[in-house]
Amino acid sequence: MNPVEGASKAEGRAQARAPSPGAAQRPTNVLIVGVGGQGVIMVSKVLALVCQRHGFEVKQSEVHGMAKRGGAVFSHVRFGERVWSPTIPQGEADVLVALEWAEGLRWLPHLNAATGIFVCDTKRIVPPFACRNRGFGAALAYSSETPSEVLAHVAEGYALDATRLATDLGNERAANTVLLGALSCALDFADRDWEAAIAQSVPPETVEINLRAFRQGRQWIERSRGGEPPVVEAAEPIAPRPRALDYAVELQIERAWCKSCDICVKLCPERCLALDADLIALLARPEACTGCRLCEWLCPDFAIRVHTRAKEARA
Ligand code: SF4
Ligand code: SF4
Questions:
Q1: Quick one: 49 and 171 in the same domain?
Q2: Residue 81 domain-assigned?
Q3: What is the per-residue pLDDT for 196?
Q4: Are residues 216 and 255 located together in one domain of the fold?
Q5: What is the pLDDT of residues 243-271, one digit of tens each?
Q6: Which residues pair with 72 in a beta bridge?
Q7: What spacing in Å lies between the alpha carbon of 306 and ligand 2's midpoint?
Q8: How far is the CA of 291 from the centre of ligand 2 (A)?
Q9: What global pTM score does this model have?
Q10: Which residues line the pocket of ligand 1, CB cutoff 6 A?
């Protein structure tokens, strides 16, 4: 197992916050970050709902203007007896929840250095600017820090492969709810309150999977705090592929998840993708596809999977 992909640091654990209305001396600050399509806003809304139901004043602000294009999305949630400003000053986030690895690193300066709790998915969504050299096998300009290196610099931190956990449950899009479960361990609200808020916030047909994902996230943190070694397999590291095309490539495109944003079509270095008559991504030139995986990494809706397998040896 790659030691970087499921790691935690919980010594000197920060105190869980938000006890009862009236007791909070200052607002509790939770910053949730990720990229478009990952469900940052859903996490933020569920948290705000739970806080409101406990009688706290809640202020929530969010930026998601570039969400559909795979851009950064973040949401500040502040709650307490009285909250005057909707934004969290740098260095004052009590909890930073990141749905994407590099976004988590980017926002670390906002975390309270002495007591802040960092919860981060090791999921990597490579932004277009990291792929400016789109030649086959080219290295990507993406964070090379390992979770263990990063967690050494925070008071309490957890790096989990939430996407893999959600995939194992049957729906990788529930990764945000896995992280919600992890977040719930940092705050003093009861499970039933979180679960009621989730049930109210997601489509009825996805309530069950989301509740399972929430419990999975909680269990991961509880096991980690209990000293168990990380239980999640490593996410695939981003590395250049070998140059020789000694493998066959297959693209799996989930039509129901494609939002026709055109990102994959525009950024495929071999120009082998197109949108079909229904504006859904299509591998129009399979013979040109090298399996470079840029389309998989860049799709904000996880609609593309690239599968490679070794070619059979010729007789
Ligand atoms: S498959 Fe392509 S067009 Fe569809 S959502 Fe993903 S990046 Fe956009
Ligand atoms: S279709 Fe995807 S895997 Fe194939 S060359 Fe284009 S970006 Fe790379």
A1: yes
A2: yes
A3: 96
A4: no
A5: 455 678 899 999 999 999 999 998 888 88
A6: 35
A7: 8
A8: 5
A9: 0.69
A10: 258-264, 281, 299, 301, 303-304
